[in-house]
Amino acid sequence: MKVFSRNCTAVMAAGLMSFTAFPTGAQTQAQTGAGNSIGLPDNVAVIGTEQPRERSATAVVNGYVITRTDINQRVALVTSASQNQFRPEDLERLREQILRNLIDETLKVQAAQAQEMPVSRAQIEQTYNRLAAQNFSQDPEQMGVYLESIGSSAAALKRQIEGELAWENLLRRNITPFVNVSAEEVNEVLKRLEESRGTDEYQLSEIYLSATPENRAAVERNAAAIMEQLGQGGSFVAYARQYSEATTAVVGGDLGWIRLGQLPPQLAASVRQMQPGQLSGPIEIPGGFSILYLTNKRQVLMADPNNAILNLKQIAITFEPDVTQEEADAKVAQFAGFVDTLRGCADAERAQTELGASVVENNQIQASRLPEQLRNMVMQLQLGQTTRPFGSPQDGVRVLMLCGRDDPQDSGAPTFEQIMNQIEEERIDKRAQRYLRDLRNDAYIEYN
User: Fold this and answer.
1) Same structural domain, 427 and 396
2) CA 42, 45, 46: angle at the middle one, nearest 5?
């Protein structure tokens, strides 16, 4: 397991299972592996010469053609969101994964059309316009120009939107009405929550890749490639939407607040070691591999200290543009020594009159809005105390003085309805995965 710090992202995903090629006519005696559930031999002799890179990465899905342009434009959507360069082998894996995504997307759209519940053009345009406003702060026409500039198109993004909306419609008709949660189950969860008051819970996001015994090794290799890309920075949300096979993909992989007992043991063991801002994976679980991102951590049914409202005074000094390092160090030392003489917030103004520092009052600041390093320092202060000096001669050096702190009240248990919705979502997710597998099994797919 690898753990990377930073706000993360960028994805490659499961590629085709690779086999060792033998010259034509080669023979080998194969023995069936004892642990192989479908009787595959331990040693595989491939007949003929394999030339995987000469195949055209296009397909016809129940008569619908997925073109090379479709794949290239979707690749452009992904690579433009990443700040790092993709190696040729990573791009190849990316193209293979995108082809699989486009096939699944096509199956979802076709299934919705077959059940006479196609996604309307108005729905697609409404979602597209909302994305333009939220993610680009510009109108739809300008976003279309941007998409073309990166080698993609508005049509490519709208096709992805259509697939997501079609899937939502299918789940709403074929799965959601048949998922039932009893009042007894919800009350049992509420009881366990109260019993676990004060224990940790975690705000998590996930990218899930399914695997079978036959392609496990290939999926694991490509999940490791995903981790390598994510560790170099980017948008976890964007890539979870593109590649995660869980239903949470439409919300960027967000799992919400989770307690360790709600997770498979493999995931719980990894999360227990993580700190907010870290990425962990690939983690093997029954049915596939997961990559987790920990956004935040708090205690069950307890107040979150990050929601405290703070009253702060900022005391800052500036430096001449041509100041030397020696002069700056001396001035910082003088500033730190003076700050130590201050006796509470009422005394802070003395820094202005005696030292020429600026004093600015910041009221009603939520602790969670402070940078993490500063927040950790401020949350350890008592009233009238200051942080250590921070900054630079170029930007100025300053301290923060805590002049007031209103801690939030203990948070109550989630409502009956919230718990019921959470259990329903978990069951819908499991049935949705089975439903998609059925669509794949029933499909007629021709590769070019």
Assistant:
1) no
2) 130
